[in-house]
UniProtKB/TrEMBL annotation:
Keyword Transmembrane part of the UniProt annotation: yes
Domain of life: Bacteria
Organism: Aurantiacibacter zhengii
Domain TadE-like, chain residue ranges per copy: 15-56
Full protein name: Pilus assembly protein
Keywords of this entry: Membrane, Transmembrane, Transmembrane helix
Length: 169
């Protein structure tokens, strides 16, 4: 009868290759899962970016008669995700977009707007030099992201947000 003392088990080399293989496979699997988390984050960000950009281009092409009511649905449809939160603003004012009686503004370097007469050359502090006052539409889309392995904070944020601003007038 064999005695199974701790020292005997430590010196036994039976099954070492199996244990080593199991450890390597587990480590490889974890590395692949982390890579997939990063990959999925960038794929989702790309989808949202493509949807916002395509909606901005569609708005630009129909600048005089933009259908603001369906723009959020365009973004959701192009991104193939109905859970995306879409916000629109014109000249920095949320939900104020219109095709009639548009008021123009100059875009400042910090992303804000200052009221100006349509077509006038923008002048003043922090205003984009040489530009003319216009009617600006900003589309912003936000989608949650849930990583599989990585802690949520490692990807800097668990939400994917993209925005585009286009001049309509």
């Amino acid at each position: 009868m064999r005695s199974f003392s701790l020292s005997t088990i430590r010196r036994n080399e039976d099954g070492v290759a199996t244990v080593e293989f199991a450890l390597w496979v587990t480590g490889f699997f974890m590395i692949v899962m982390v890579a997939l988390d990063f990959g999925m984050f960038f794929i989702e960000r790309g989808k949202v970016n493509e949807a916002v950009a395509a909606s901005a281009v569609a708005s630009f092409e129909e600048a005089d008669n933009v259908n603001f009511g369906v723009l959020p649905n365009y973004v959701r449809s192009i991104a193939d995700n109905q859970a995306i939160t879409v916000a629109m603003s014109c000249n920095g004012v949320a939900n104020s977009c219109t095709n009639l009686n548009r008021t123009c503004a100059c875009l400042k370097t910090d992303g804000t707007y200052v009221a100006a007469a349509c077509g006038n050359i923008c002048t003043g502090p922090d205003v984009t030099g040489g530009s003319t006052a216009g009617y600006y539409l900003t589309i912003e889309a936000d989608q949650g992201f849930n990583p599989v392995v990585l802690p949520a904070g490692l990807l800097s944020d668990t939400s994917v947000t993209q925005q585009a601003t286009v001049r309509l007038q």
